[in-house]
Amino acid sequence: NAGVTQTPKFQVLKTGQSMTLQCAQDMNHNSMYWYRQDPGMGLRLIYYSASEGTTDKGEVPNGYNVSRLNKREFSLRLESAAPSQTSVYFCASSEASSGAYNEQFFGPGTRLTVL
Amino acid sequence: QKEVEQNSGPLSVPEGAIASLNCTYSDRVSQSFFWYRQYSGKSPELIMSIYSNGDKEDGRFTAQLNKASQYVSLLIRDSQPSDSATYLCAVYNFNKFYFGSGTKLNVKP
Question: How far is A40 from chain B (nearest CA, A)?
């Protein structure tokens, strides 16, 4: 099993360009998440999908949109990239949308630079 | 007030010593607690999960949970240079995971 995969690994954009970050998991997990990680800021939740067909905002949703394409795939879109969106983006998944036993696993990350 | 608080460190310990990492959380109804290890330039890797009060041991790692004090800790016995990384504490609550900013651990040979 590959676990959680993300594409691309690296990306450089110019201000105003758009792009979509792809994420897929093969663990049959219900919930999927998008985080960004900036130096000294820890992991901040952008959006999450508790189950197929639902999405909700996290702590820092502005400037992003998401699509839960099916149970396996959860994409993150930047419509008009800004330098403040330069960050490392992680996708993660977990088995249950509620309940105590709910370990979360991360993909390898996408390093995005917006010039 | 942040949901999850950790001392940013760095915490320096000699090889073979016990490293003690601490975390406090603000929401009393939090359900599950996790420790992740993150090497520089890599993604977080789950190393321990704990769901009930007390200790949970896995190899050289012991997680401790005290819900009354809203406190989670991670002990690393016989620390190795390969344990040098940033350790993230995470708390699960109502469909979301809340992460601390992480504690950087340096294990000196």
Answer: 7
B99 touches chain A (CB under 8 A): yes
A27 touches B at CB < 8 Å: no
Cβ-based neighbours of B30, under 8 Å, separated by 6 or more: B70, B91, B92, B93
Q: Is the Cβ–Cβ distance between B34 and B49 less than 8 Å?
A: yes
Please tell me the distance from the alpha carbon of residue B72 to that of residue B40, in angstroms, as a whole number: 23
Separation of alpha carbons B53 and B66, rounded Å: 5
What number is the average pLDDT over the span B88-102? 90
Q: Tell me if A43 and B46 make a contact (CB, 8 A cut-off).
A: no
**DSSP letter string, B44-106:** -EEEEEE-SSEEEEETTEEEEEETTTTEEEEEESS--GGG-EEEEEEEEETTEEEE---EEEE
B residues 7-36 lying closer than 8 A (beta carbon) to A: 8, 31-32, 34, 36
Residues with Cβ within 8 Å of residue A26, at least 6 apart in sequence: A1, A2, A3, A72
Q: Does B95 touch chain A (CB under 8 A)?
A: yes
pLDDT in tens, B57-84: 999 999 999 999 999 999 999 999 999 9
Q: Is residue B8 pLDDT above 90, yes or no?
A: no
pLDDT (0 to 100) of residue B81: 97
A vs B, Cβ pairs < 8 A, gives 55
Establish if A10 touches chain B: CB-CB under 8 angstroms: no
